[in-house]
Specification:
By secondary structure, the protein is an alpha+beta fold. The protein has 15 helices and 16 strands. The strands form three sheets. The protein has an eight-stranded mixed β-sheet. Strands 13-12-14-15-16 form a five-stranded mixed β-sheet, with helices on both faces. Helix 1 runs antiparallel to helix 5 and helix 5 packs parallel to helix 9.
């Protein structure tokens, strides 16, 4: 073989793709019910977009981006997340001048991060995400959280927990950052190298560190929740009321800061329990300053991202799920006695397809017996048999592959007969 797929990449084979579509269909339905419309942005963006939006302190920018120079010596990056590209499209296309809020979603969007493959997230992974521009009220935050929980429950995921936090805004965060930085300086020597670097760039990112030593040192760290301004406090309290009114159980977790620097006020994660511990299924929050940061007007926004591979992995671990997976097997296989009748078989196959029936035929010149074996392997429900006698009389012999019942019918009536039998 010439080569293998790159590390951290995965082929979605034909026998798996139906599951993907089933999950994506549920995601689309949930988004459309809430008034969100699909956006598709390029997989490649100018590197500056992510450097400015994600923040220099984020691991995404510092370690994980697939960045290279194109033939015009421009620095471009395979998108590690979709929010920044959606903001760019929102501005470049003038969507901000239309009626707000503008609600958009993306599904099966490929993302690339150069990191060790994780449980349910490879170097190339795909996301479902929703972005709402122009809504400042916490009802928009609650809408997305409720939508995600109901979606995941509907497709069969269990043991879900909602964790929320507020990380303040440009009015109240600077004072907290200053005090927190002084706190961290006293512990600098006991923190990992990454957290030492974050002290100056964005001290709150130390709360997101996965190192056990850092977690232990920061167990008594001051919390942003105790330093919120009146506006942020009111926003957070209203969010909690909306969630409670919708029957969503949640936990306030002051350690949630998310991995990208553009978040403000609300941040949230949807967690599930697995035999190997907790796993984040979805994460998001509010980014009220990002549109302006990218060069647009001051427009508030909120959104989330959810890894599709991770959702599928969790569904695989269940005894059952609620997905409607489409049957992709042929409904009718057209077999012919000899190759002189292959054109007749081809036209009959097309006639079945013209009325919406999944139909196939032999393309290898097999014997009639071998065609039946092939049809059986494909899982065909019926076989339409053409021999010299049937063609001469203008009929076709149909066989139910499960019951083995056979009957003859005029060729021009066979497609509608199959429609009736298949429902």
């Amino acid at each position: 073989m010439l080569t293998n797929r790159p590390k951290g990449m995965k082929d979605v084979l034909p026998q798996e793709s139906a599951r993907w579509r089933a999950v994506e269909n549920e995601m689309r339905k949930a988004a459309l019910l809430a008034g969100y419309r699909e956006i598709r942005t390029p997989v490649l963006e100018h590197t500056e977009l992510f450097a400015r939006s994600a923040g220099e302190s984020s691991d995404v920018v510092r370690k994980e981006m697939y960045t290279f120079k194109d033939k015009g010596d421009r620095s471009v990056t395979l998108k590690p997340e979709s929010t920044a590209g959606t903001v760019r499209a929102f501005l470049e296309s003038g969507l901000y001048a239309q009626a707000l809020p503008m609600k958009m979603y993306y599904v099966n969007a490929p993302h690339f991060r150069y990191e060790a493959p994780q449980s349910g997230r490879l170097r190339e992974h795909h996301q479902f995400g929703m972005e709402c521009f122009g809504a400042s009220q916490p009802s928009a935050d609650a809408e997305l959280i409720v939508l995600v929980v109901r979606l995941l429950e509907r497709i069969g995921l269990k043991n879900l927990s909602v964790r929320i936090n507020s990380i303040g805004c440009p009015s109240c965060r600077p004072t907290y950052q200053k005090n927190f930085r002084e706190y961290l300086e006293q512990k600098r020597d006991k923190l990992c190298k990454a957290c030492q670097e974050r002290i100056e760039i964005n001290p709150m990112r130390t709360l997101d560190c996965k190192e056990d030593a850092c977690k232990a040192e920061l167990k008594d760290a001051p919390e942003m929740l105790d330093n919120l301004c009146e506006e942020c406090q009111e926003h957070f309290e209203k969010l909690k009321k909306y969630l409670a009114a919708a029957g969503i159980r949640y936990t306030v977790d002051p350690r949630i800061v998310r991995g990208l620097d553009y978040y403000t006020k609300t941040v949230f994660e949807i967690i599930t329990d697995t035999p190997n511990g907790e796993l984040t299924v979805c994460g998001g929050g509010r980014y009220d300053g990002l549109v302006e940061q990218v060069g647009g007007p001051a427009i508030p926004a909120v959104g989330f991202g959810m890894g599709i591979e991770r959702v599928l992995m969790l569904l695989d671990e269940l005894d059952k799920h609620n997905l409607h997976i489409e049957d992709e097997t042929p409904e009718v296989f057209v077999a012919c006695l000899n190759q002189s009748l292959s054109e007749n078989a081809f036209l009959l196959m097309q006639a079945f397809r013209n009325v919406g029936i999944r139909a196939d035929m032999d393309h290898q010149g097999r014997s009639l017996k071998a065609q039946f074996k092939y049809a059986d392997k494909l899982g065909a429900k019926y076989v339409a048999i053409l021999g010299d006698d049937e063609v001469a009389r203008g009929v076709v012999k149909l066989r139910n592959m499960e019951t083995r019942d056979e009957w003859e019918i005029e060729q021009d009536k066979a497609p509608q007969d199959m429609v009736s039998r298949l429902g």
